[in-house]
Amino acid sequence: MSDLTRKTAVELSELMSSGQASSVEITQAHLDRIGATDGAVHAFLHVDTEGALAQAADVDARRAAGDELGPLAGVPLALKDVLTQDGVPTTAGSKILEGWKPPYDSTVVKRLKAAGIVILGKTNMDEFAMGSSTENSAYGTTHNPWDLNRIPGGSGGGSSAAISAYQAPLAIGTDTGGSIRQPAAFTGTVGVKPTYGGTSRYGLIALASSLDTPGPCARTTLDAALLHEVIAGYDPMDSTSINQPVPAVVDAARRGDVTGLRIGVVKELGGEGYQPGVEARFHEAVELLTKLGAEVVEVSCPHFQYALPAYYLILPSEASSNLAKFDAMRFGLRVGDDGENDAEKVMSLTREAGFGPEVKRRIMLGTHALSSGYYDAYYGQAQKVRTLIARDFAAAYEHVDVLVSPSTPTTAFAIGDRVNDPIAMYKNDLCTIPSNLAGNAAASFPVGLADEDGLPVGFHVMAPVMRDDLCYLVGAALESAYADQWGGVLMSKAPELEVTR
Amino acid sequence: MTVVADVLSIDDALAQFDPVMGLEVHVELNTLSKMFCGCPTEFGAPPNTQTCPVCLGLPGALPVVNARAVESAIKIGLALNCEIAEWCRFARKNYFYPDMPKNFQTSQYDEPIAFNGWTEVVVDGETYRIEIERAHMEEDTGKSTHVGGATGRIHGASHSLVDYNRAGIPLIEIVTKTIEVPPAKAAAVARAYVSMLRDLLLALDVSDVRMDQGSLRCDANVSLKPSGSSQLGTRTETKNVNSFRSVERAITYEITRQAAVLVAGGKILQETRHWHEDTGVTTSGREKSDADDYRYFPEPDLVPVAPAREWVEEIRATLPEAPPVKRLRLQTEWGFTDLEMRDVVNGGVQTLIEQTVALGVAPAAAKKWWLGELARAANEAGKDVDALGVGPAEIAEVQRLVEAGALNDKLAREVFDGLVKSEGTVTEIIEARGLALVSDDSALQEAIDRAIAANPDVVEKVNSGKPAAAGALIGAVMKDMRGQADAAKVRELLNATLGI
Amino acid sequence: MPSITREEVAHLARLARIELTEDELDHLAPQLEQIIGLVAQVSEVAAEDIPPTSHALPITNVMRADVNVPCLTPEQALSGAPAAEEQRFRVPRILTEEA
Asked: Which Pfam families match (chain C) (predicted)?
């Protein structure tokens, strides 16, 4: 039953509830698919075959016993390796955590388990989520299933590659500056960054605490919404968690009606530096939404141009502090403990050996930005710019319901292309970063292939805080309109991967 | 190991210099759980049994503020006449140290919860006002044991073992503004301040305040300026000052050390120094440098604390009476003279007496034991009087036995000696040391008969109309009984025997 | 004048406890200078009267009740330790007293 891997989560759920397939069969099919394709894709850092099959068998047993199960019970999922799972290796893509098995579950994992979702394994990522390509992973680059010579985006490239390679129908990502949405755009899949505080960060290995947000990845809008509903909601273990009901994302994804919705096209997110094929697909999608009944206007957010510099001050500052705990004392790698070297030396040697170049760069930058004499000019000023960006959003939302832009300025680039040019790499996240700074909800939906390279283009929707449902509303409207044109989701146009045994 | 610096005598030092002090006191709160997680805070638990992902700083874990710790911080702030912030944040203090799990301490920086306060202390009958700069919330670190060195100290150790039970226990740091008092009073005022804080914190019921267990720790900043000058000198920060008496001793030492350096034409280094209780000196720790760049920034994992004014007022309404008011009340209740009360305050035993009196002991008796026998024992042992192993409960028990005639003062002192030496409970010590008074009349009568037989000349004197001479016979009987007799009873029996 | 010198990078590396190689120091100084050039654009924004944003959302007063919850067992706590002894984390000797 190899076609089980082509099903959406909703379809798999129906197969299970109607008794046509068991979770064990479904899980095994996906494990087989991983075995057959991951040599080429390298989406996974760890495949938990035993644990996944045990979870699947448990769900099957509960279903047989007549237990009431959630809509995604028994559906397999790929978990970004930045979230802790009790007893399962968790590395955040770094050598410094090689072999570490956390003694606790992150809140996201707890909720996945409680929903009966089967965790297949941990997916590749840029080290500590610092990057836009997975090339910064200490464990090798993930390849884009649309073109194996290209990157799948990052930092959550492993999760997006896993779902676009049909290794899993669902995945979890985390988004600090675009790490869910940019990989979704590059792989023709759906990726949602919930409102900051809408999903718990407990057990998420922190990059930048004030920006990090876990969220769902899937091949369809409804699958993403169902997963969103499982992981979202108030968590008393995370002080920044929002104590409010989860927005009605599933309902919005089912409805997909944009009649009367006021949509603002952000003037500043386009033009110079944007690939023509990306802009073409973006404008087509905007027109499509107009046809579907939305009111489209142009909106100016003048401070968005400063989002990237502000982000590259705030993120490294927080990261330099968050990553201080990786010091060889309590867990993880230890280098140079020869009985002579003192603790300080062993810390320094370990961090030198355990961190990759991009991580070191950002730690150094953050250390600099926070040091006395520079704080006001850098970190302090960046926080003020953050206020101005949030005010740009607030002003725009007085006139429109959602803002839209391309998800990324370009389509997926070739592996190795931007490795030696950090700034070119950083510019990938121009469109996605403002929403992290302001904390609002945002998502990327596939809207076709760029003419010049035949690669997926993502459509970016930004909605106000705790209006995540509006993202799904737009995504579902686009998805169903394109399904009429394409005869299915964009993923159905993806080339077949060569299967190895 | 350490070269002990030359020091001037304190009189010489104070003849030439005026000391300037600042005190930073860290108080461990007595909350059930830690500052940012639900782990217990019990002292002395087996290593690493009170930890979780949060206080171990494991990747992914996040802090959540303990509401009772915030309440305690506000209580302390109010009791020190501070303003309570309407809005404040936690901040990360970034530096690497093996016993600090995250390599940053979650603390408060430029937005403390309480600030701009004051308090008063009394030394030798004079009242001194101490300005409080701030009181802020933070977390404690783990505890390192240094292995392989000769003395268990950091120097010469081959490695260290870290227990994170203490990591994350809530701390309040109370910082004074510069304290300037008459030079000769400086060290005593500092001691009185810390002692007053102890009483205050106990009354607030926010901390166990056991200096011997580290739940109250004091760092003393000291600098000298030439007498009468306003030119500030370089200051040192002396750490590890962990008893009331060492507050006074360490500051006195640091004054005399700095004076010697300055008189010899040397310069004071801006550095951290460590107080050594055993040798009574401070030694150089670490020079302050640009490496002390803590890169403070607002803690993004915690949201701001904005105590509602109603809550602050509710807390204010629960505060116990202010220490000066309480002192006067107690003095009246106990019927002590001004001089007696001053001794009680200076001796740091006011709270101990209060607790003892609460157990039914007469104030005069409580004062007699605490200021007499136990103060002397503490001095001999080089400890604070409340760290001796004798508490109000033991005093009350012993005093009851004295009043019942089962012990006399001399035997009571022996019981206290046994308690200080950790020989067991009061009953066990009386038993083991054989301290019960002999109340058996026949045994006493035998001893009296022996004394009369052995001292015919004294009996002669008594019989010849000098009854006062009988005192020598009582002394002989008491000696014979090795003190374990009630002197009044002996006199009664002796008088009957001699027919006087 | 460069916005960051090789010496400053070396100082930052000490602060951040990373034992950079000479080669890395050579590379990092110009790279960081380039990135600082980018991020310094924040200074172009006139923001004197603008309050800084440290948290994405304006939430305050999130606190938990002072109650105990189960701890890790010492075995769990020490499970990831590079070295352990006497139920404690074994760490290399510490040369400097605590800050």
From this structure: GatC
**What per-residue confidence (pLDDT) applies to A180?**
98
Distance CA B37, CA B40 (A): 9
Give the pLDDT score at B345.
84
Chain A residues whose CB is inside 8 A of the B168 CB are: none
End-to-end Cα, chain B, rounded Å: 70
Q: Chain A contacts of B148, Cβ < 8 Å?
A: none
Closest chain C residue to A100, measured at CA: C80
CB contacts < 8 Å between A and B, how many?
A: 101
Cβ contact A285:A456 at 8 Å = no
Distance (Å, whole) CA A271 – CA A276:
9
Neighbours of A272 (CB within 10 A): 5
Cα of A341 to nearest chain C Cα, Å: 7
- With bands split at pLDDT 50, 70 and 90, how would you rate the model's confidence at C2? low
The pTM score is: 0.88
Q: Which two tokens stand for residue A324?
A: 């201080």
Per-residue pLDDT at B4 exceeds 60: no
* C54 interfacial to chain B (CB closer than 8 Å): yes
CB contact under 8 A, B146 and C93: yes
What does the pLDDT read at residue B2?
A: 41
Report yes or no: B210 and B239 within 8 Å, Cβ to Cβ: no
Catalytic positions of A are: 80, 155, 179
Give the single-character DSSP code of A270: S
> Average pLDDT over chain A, rounded to whole?
96
Element (H, E) at C16: none
Chain A neighbours (≥3 Cβ pairs under 8 A) are B, C
- For residue B5, what pLDDT is reported? 55
Mapping DSSP onto H, E and C, the string for chain B reads: CCCCCCCCCHHHHHHHEEEEEEEEEEEECCCCECCCCCCECCCCCCCCCCCCCCCCCCCCCCCCEEHHHHHHHHHHHHHCCCEECCCECCEEEECCCCCCCCCEEEECCCCCCEEEEEEEEEECCEEEEEEEEEEEEEECCCEEEEECCCCCCCCCCCEEEEECCCCCCEEEEEEECCECCCHHHHHHHHHHHHHHHHHHHHHHCCCCCCHHHCCEEEEEEEEEEECCCCCCCCCEEEEEECCHHHHHHHHHHHHHHHHHHHHCCCCCCCEEEEEECCCCEEEEEEECCCCCCCCCEECCCCCCECCCHHHHHHHHHCCCCCHHHHHHHHHHHHCCCHHHHHHHHHCCCHHHHHHHHHCCCCHHHHHHHHHHHHHHHHHHHCCCHHHCCCCHHHHHHHHHHHHCCCCCHHHHHHHHHHHHCCCCCHHHHHHHHCCCCECCHHHHHHHHHHHHHHCHHHHHHHHCCCHHHHHHHHHHHHHHCCCCECHHHHHHHHHHHHCC
B64 contact residues in C (CB cutoff 8 A): 62-64
C58 in reach of chain A (CB within 8 A): no
Largest CA distance in chain A: 73
All residues of chain C having their beta carbon less than 8 Å from the beta carbon of residue B295 are 15
- Write out the two tokens for C53: 């944003």
Q: Which of A174, A190, A123, A180 is nearest to A153 (CA)?
A: A180
Cβ pair A104:B58 closer than 8 A: yes
Report the C-alpha gap between A369 and A376 in whole angstroms.
Answer: 9
* Cβ pair A324:B104 closer than 8 A: yes
- Give the angle A307-A310-A311 at the CA atoms, nearest 5°: 80
Is A374 an interface residue toward B (CB < 8 Å)?
no
8-state DSSP, A295: E
* pLDDT (0 to 100) of residue B468: 81
